[in-house]
Design goal:
This protein is α+β, with helices and mostly antiparallel strands. The protein has nine helices and seven strands, in the order E-E-E-E-E-E-H-E-H-H-H-H-H-H-H-H. It has two domains: 115 residues, Jelly Rolls, CATH 2.60.120.10; 99 residues, Orthogonal Bundle (Arc Repressor Mutant, subunit A). 40% of the residues lie in helices and 22% in strands. Strands 1, 2, 3, 4, 5, 6 and 7 form a seven-stranded antiparallel β-sheet that branches. Strand 1 and strand 2 form a beta hairpin. InterPro entries: AraC_XylS_family_regulators, Homeodomain-like_sf, HTH_AraC.
């Protein structure tokens, strides 16, 4: 079974609705919520199967979603106000089942669901350390090579301290968060150019680097990501 469905992308959020196909074990640099009318199955780091109608995965938690015909999937970046809220809901668990009161309203279109998720939130509000927030803002659109070192200098903080803050507050290594941003850029560019050109646009060394990174963070190749969004 392949990935094919509808995608809605916002500044710090991606929503997908459709079929979930084959994918390798991977670790997102985001909070993930998967929900469906029928129970979903997911493998954790130990290979144990976790089932539920709505599953929440913390950033950097190894997992593999088993194929299903229809689901709604939410990826939200951990530095956002919405991401911080969902990370608190997860607690210490890498993967947890969401109670019915916390589930997404699947009757809504993806754009309406996005609006509902942000209702009452001040998107500019952040609980992040100001130095980390400053570094993250700088990192958007930066070339991958040496990005973390440059961000630390820009924020007036040591590289080691910046990495520690990122792991503590984002739940994911900063280098992986940077890679996530690059994949987002390249995936968007791949809609209108070749994968090789898109890889360079995102800051990757070449298409192979882009492909390896996408499999590591999404469990899918760039080609599969594009097919998933093709409807």
């Amino acid at each position: 079974m392949g990935w094919r469905g509808e995608v809605h992308v916002d500044q710090c959020l991606l929503l997908y609705r459709g079929a979930a196909g084959d994918n390798a074990v991977h670790r997102h640099a985001s909070v993930q919520i998967c929900q469906a009318e029928t129970p979903l199955s997911m493998l954790d780091a130990s290979g144990k199967t976790i089932q539920g109608h709505a599953l929440l995965v913390r950033p950097d938690a190894p997992h593999q979603l088993l194929p299903t015909s229809t689901l709604t999937l939410l990826l939200v970046e951990p530095q956002s106000a919405l991401g911080q809220i969902w990370m608190q809901k997860a607690g210490d668990a890498d993967i947890c089942r969401l109670p019915e009161s916390e589930r997404l309203d699947l009757s809504l279109s993806l754009s309406d669901l996005n609006a509902q998720l942000h209702q009452g939130l001040n998107v500019s509000e952040s609980n992040l350390d100001p130095r980390l927030a400053h570094a993250l803002a700088y990192l958007h659109g930066q070339p991958l090579n040496g990005a973390v070192t440059r961000a630390a200098q820009h924020a007036g903080i040591s590289v080691s301290r910046l990495r520690t803050l990122a792991k503590q507050q984002l739940g994911v290594p900063l280098s992986k968060w940077v890679l996530w941003q690059a994949i987002r850029v390249s995936a968007k560019q791949a809609m209108s150019m070749s994968l090789a050109e898109a890889a360079l646009a995102g800051g990757f060394a070449d298409q192979a680097h882009f492909t390896r990174s996408a499999r590591k963070l999404f469990g899918l190749t760039p080609t599969q990501l594009l097919q998933a969004a093709s409807g």
